[in-house]
């Protein structure tokens, strides 16, 4: 049901009006709504329900170590040259796996596995082997390549031979953080990977028959212009990755210390950022990529595009996914779990994470059990952000509510957005327009009851 997106330059006035700061809605309620007084019994009850339902699992491992500091990065990371820290961390990861396996059972099929970070490719080949051995010891991973097993790599710090190791371990998807090929931009953010390195990796990925390759790009970095970024896109388009994530750089130095190393005067203006995004959007869609939503693009035969066409696309803490029927178990420092209607997050401090596991405790720091209203709004936001539409009949069927009464204030606000042609609203439901797709986060914000009292600083919608 993906339709072409209208050119952004024809909607500049609407963008100016609606381009506010807001959540990315990888969940609803969003992560900042988790409570530190979250009781462990809520987690245990969620796991017990998961055992009864026997839903398959999705595993996320947060591997926080990095060899160097990328100035733009807002991820939870540990920049270190002390590689012995990895083994100490992996020992705690295995302890956490054992704790959860005891509660969930080790026979549940794992449909999805993801190594994120940090920089997972910081691990040596032997350490990668060790982590996978630990995982298979405690969880049931399929050996027939039917699972969705993905890993993030730094293309400037990954040996081509490591890709063969990853494929041997069962990984069939790779996401590489390219960001930009312009050397001046790379120097300004301390993130280096050459065109030759990326091309060599792509050759190896295709040779080892990885199912899907994603490239992360960032617009809004220092010294970027529409012209310079066009050169980066030319290289990316020639390499033809299956997916492209085109992230908007959110400069928030008051929140992320590393961003203080970026000179504000070198950042493109809002108008320049808009131009970069406009031209990138046009280039990618003209070359055959489907705009999945927000900052994600995929080739028509990629699973994300297929799932969207078939109405199966979902969104969780890992972004757009096709396996949201799974219970998501996050392992490692700062990782987030989503089991049924309960979310929880591990502590963000690696020393605290390791100490708690050494004490025989789970490393959970905060969490939230969703209310019925949360569940209803989660469904609405998921439908809008994944499929750009909402059926009132389906909403009424699922939750037994009258949408016009339950969401009377929200529908009144949507009428204003409808007048600006961001969406159409009628008795059947909501359908988001081409302009509205670019502002889908703003549309979803209408249904977010937590925003009014939130003190969180979010990135801008565009």
Automatic annotation (TrEMBL):
<dbReference type="InterPro" id="IPR004558">
    <property type="entry name" value="Coprogen_oxidase_HemN"/>
</dbReference>
<dbReference type="InterPro" id="IPR023404">
    <property type="entry name" value="rSAM_horseshoe"/>
</dbReference>
<dbReference type="InterPro" id="IPR007197">
    <property type="entry name" value="rSAM"/>
</dbReference>
<dbReference type="GO" id="GO:0051989">
    <property type="term" value="F:coproporphyrinogen dehydrogenase activity"/>
</dbReference>
<protein>
    <recommendedName>
        <fullName>Coproporphyrinogen-III oxidase</fullName>
        <ecNumber>1.3.98.3</ecNumber>
    </recommendedName>
</protein>
<comment type="function">
    <text>Involved in the heme biosynthesis. Catalyzes the anaerobic oxidative decarboxylation of propionate groups of rings A and B of coproporphyrinogen III to yield the vinyl groups in protoporphyrinogen IX.</text>
</comment>
<keyword id="KW-0560">Oxidoreductase</keyword>
<keyword id="KW-0408">Iron</keyword>
<dbReference type="InterPro" id="IPR034505">
    <property type="entry name" value="Coproporphyrinogen-III_oxidase"/>
</dbReference>
<keyword id="KW-0949">S-adenosyl-L-methionine</keyword>
<keyword id="KW-0004">4Fe-4S</keyword>
<dbReference type="InterPro" id="IPR006638">
    <property type="entry name" value="Elp3/MiaA/NifB-like_rSAM"/>
</dbReference>
<feature type="domain" description="Radical SAM core">
    <location>
        <begin position="51"/>
        <end position="287"/>
    </location>
</feature>
<keyword id="KW-0479">Metal-binding</keyword>
<keyword id="KW-0963">Cytoplasm</keyword>
<dbReference type="InterPro" id="IPR058240">
    <property type="entry name" value="rSAM_sf"/>
</dbReference>
<comment type="similarity">
    <text>Belongs to the anaerobic coproporphyrinogen-III oxidase family.</text>
</comment>
<comment type="subunit">
    <text>Monomer.</text>
</comment>
<dbReference type="Pfam" id="PF04055">
    <property type="entry name" value="Radical_SAM"/>
</dbReference>
<comment type="pathway">
    <text>Porphyrin-containing compound metabolism; protoporphyrin-IX biosynthesis; protoporphyrinogen-IX from coproporphyrinogen-III (AdoMet route): step 1/1.</text>
</comment>
<keyword id="KW-0627">Porphyrin biosynthesis</keyword>
<dbReference type="Pfam" id="PF06969">
    <property type="entry name" value="HemN_C"/>
</dbReference>
<dbReference type="InterPro" id="IPR010723">
    <property type="entry name" value="HemN_C"/>
</dbReference>
<keyword id="KW-0411">Iron-sulfur</keyword>
């Amino acid at each position: 049901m993906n339709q072409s997106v209208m050119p952004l330059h024809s909607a500049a006035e609407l963008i100016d009006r609606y381009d506010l700061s807001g959540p990315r809605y990888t969940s609803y309620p969003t992560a900042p709504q988790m409570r530190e007084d979250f009781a462990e019994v809520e987690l245990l009850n969620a796991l017990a329900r998961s055992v009864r339902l026997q839903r398959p699992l999705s595993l996320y491992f947060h591997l926080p170590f990095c060899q160097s500091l990328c100035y733009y990065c807002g991820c939870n990371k540990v920049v270190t040259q002390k590689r012995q820290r990895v083994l100490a961390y992996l020992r705690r990861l295995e302890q956490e796996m054992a704790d959860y396996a005891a509660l969930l059972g080790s026979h549940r099929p794992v449909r999805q596995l993801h190594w994120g970070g940090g920089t997972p490719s910081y691990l040596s080949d032997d350490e990668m082997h060790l982590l996978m051995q630990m995982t298979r010891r405690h969880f049931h991973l399929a050996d027939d390549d039917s699972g969705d097993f993905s890993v993030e790599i730094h293309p400037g710090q990954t040996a081509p031979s490591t890709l063969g190791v990853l494929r041997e371990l069962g990984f069939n998807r790779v996401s590489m953080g390219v960001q930009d090929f312009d050397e001046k931009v790379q120097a300004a953010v301390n993130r280096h990977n050459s065109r030759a390195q990326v091309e060599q990796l792509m050759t190896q990925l295709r040779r080892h028959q990885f199912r899907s390759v994603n490239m992360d790009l960032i617009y809004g970095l220092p010294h970027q212009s529409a012209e310079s970024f066009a050169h980066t896109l030319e290289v990316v388009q020639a390499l033809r990755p299956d997916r492209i994530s085109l992230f908007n750089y959110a400069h928030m130095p008051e929140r992320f210390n590393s961003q203080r190393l970026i000179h504000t005067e070198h950042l493109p203006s809002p108008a320049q950022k808009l131009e970069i995004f406009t031209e990138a959007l046009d280039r990618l869609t003209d070359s055959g990529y489907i705009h999945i939503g927000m900052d994600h693009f995929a080739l028509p035969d990629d699973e994300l595009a297929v799932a969207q066409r078939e109405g199966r696309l979902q969104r969780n803490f890992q972004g757009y996914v096709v396996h949201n029927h799974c219970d998501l178990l996050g392992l490692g420092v700062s990782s987030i779990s989503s089991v049924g209607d309960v979310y929880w997050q591990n502590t963000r401090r690696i020393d605290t994470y390791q100490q708690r596991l050494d004490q025989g405790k789970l490393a959970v720091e905060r969490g939230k059990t969703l209310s019925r209203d949360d569940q209803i709004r989660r469904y609405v936001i998921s439908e809008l952000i994944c499929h750009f539409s909402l059926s009132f009949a389906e909403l009424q069927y699922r939750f037994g509510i009258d949408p016009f009464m339950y969401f009377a204030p929200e529908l009144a606000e949507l009428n204003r957005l409808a007048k600006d042609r961001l969406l159409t609203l009628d008795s059947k439901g909501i359908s988001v327009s081409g302009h509205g797709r670019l502002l889908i986060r703003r549309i979803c914000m209408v249904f977010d009851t937590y925003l009014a009292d939130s003190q969180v600083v979010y990135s801008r919608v565009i």
